[in-house]
Amino acid sequence: MNLWKKVILTALGLVLVSVAGFCAYGIKMYSDATGTVKGVYESIDRTSKRRDTAVNIDAQEPFSVLLMGIDTGDLGRTEQGRSDTTMVVTINPKEKKSTMISLDRDILTEIVGYGTEDKLNHAYAFGGAKGGAKMAIDTVENLLDIPIDNYVSINMKGLKDLIDAVGGIEVDNPFEFTLDGITVPKGHIKLDSETGLAYARMREEDPEGDIGRQRRQREVVEKIVNKIISLDGISKYRKILDAVKDNVRTDLTWDNMVDIQKKYMPAFKNIDSLQLEGEGTMIGGIYYQILDPTKLYEVQTKLRSQLGLPENKDMQAKDSSNYSNQISGNETGSYDGASDAATNYDYSQDGTNVDPNSYTDQNVVDEGQY
Question: Coiled coil where (predicted)?
Answer without folding.
Answer: none
